[in-house]
Write a structure and sequence with these properties.
seven-stranded antiparallel sheet, six-stranded antiparallel sheet, about 25% strand
Amino acid sequence: MFNPIITSHPVTGAQARKFRMPGYPLVLVSTNVFQEGEDLHLFCDSVVHYGVSGSPVSIEQKNGRVDRVGSLAQRRLTRGTFDTPNDEDLIQVSFPHVKESIERVQIRRLSENINKYIASIHEIGGGLALDKEEIAESEIANRSRIEPQIKDFLKSPFDPVDPRSDLEHLSILNERIAETQKQTDANVDQAKRLIASALEVGREVRWPLSVGLKVSDPIGVVSERAEVRLTTARASGEILVRILVDHKDGRGNEIQISSLNELSKLMRQRSWTTFHRTFAYPVATNYWRFAYDAEMLVGNDIVTVERDMKALLERFQDTHDPREYRCPTSSTVLDHLERIRKDRYLHIGGQSVEVDVVETEGTIGLKFFFAEGDVQRSQTILIWECDGQCIFLSASVPATAVRKLTVEEIVKYTWERNRNIDVVEFMLNDEQSIVGRCVHTVDSLHWREFIYCAHVLAAESDRLEYLICEEDQF
């Protein structure tokens, strides 16, 4: 399954960062806004050109987002012992087109120009790319093949200033990647062992696991089959454990929602008073199919312990009353908050993030500051405790704005949106505002899990608020 990000907006830094780690999202669809200034090469190696530029320089510039020193393709090539690499070892560049059309002529001419351009700056030939302004009918009738890309090893006619620097940098980069992969493999093995123990199944089982599970439902407790898998976070590349349940009951699994009051009642039953996540698939006008899941960050044997897995399973069975949310009193949460008071600049996902602890009468939370160019934004995440759980809560869209939306739009921004984000759940609260929420058991809430939940909730809430503002909904 592809998870595309589609953008033509100049604010692209946050989107690009998602492609600098392995895992989801897998596809970035963009206009020329990504032609310059973005490094996507560490874990990306494919470029697909829809709409062809006649300039080989422009094409090479776009390909250059993944064609860089230390790229995924270069690491494959430098690890190999071959004289001539296989096609799949190279950076994959393709030009989808209709064969019996003017596109074929354009791509054939472009391929010729690219080869001439490459030859003009390397020691494999000479000559400059030609620039033809018109396409003759004879060219359209020409059925000759499109020139294949030059695959010879290229040698620059220019000597680098320090030939050792790039090799040293690449060696260090490879070592770091190898260390990260080793730690990730260890974390995955650790999580599998803990999950198997929590489910009381043998370690030699086929993944993803299929287990029986009871789920809290508005009509009572119903038996379900759950799928347990380890997956990669779409936005950050972190490893997550995920338990997924498709909703089924005696009335079928498609539900009609016709009014805001009806939707608000269902949101309270299925989301606001439960600890699992709820998401929906549209199947027809005003009809949706539902599923539930619970996700949690996977770390080493200090971050992830067996009671984490048991608590994750219990999220499907427990209900609670949000009116009983209380300010944190556990030493675990209070210690994490004190750590932020001492250092408000946190290193999260390879970037420095400014965070303030904010307190008013009866509430305590974290205020995250985001900057995209000249745009300065902030999101406040309130921290609560209830029934042994730490509740991270954000206010995303006020009730006054929600009432201007249709039922379909509200579901799109909440239950449907939950399908495409990690850990966070969006829903309506009792006041019919859209809120975001993360949940984690208090007694096993490691610092890394605490700050991950708070930050991913702040980032996703900021995106939702920005999205609705962009669409002039309020």
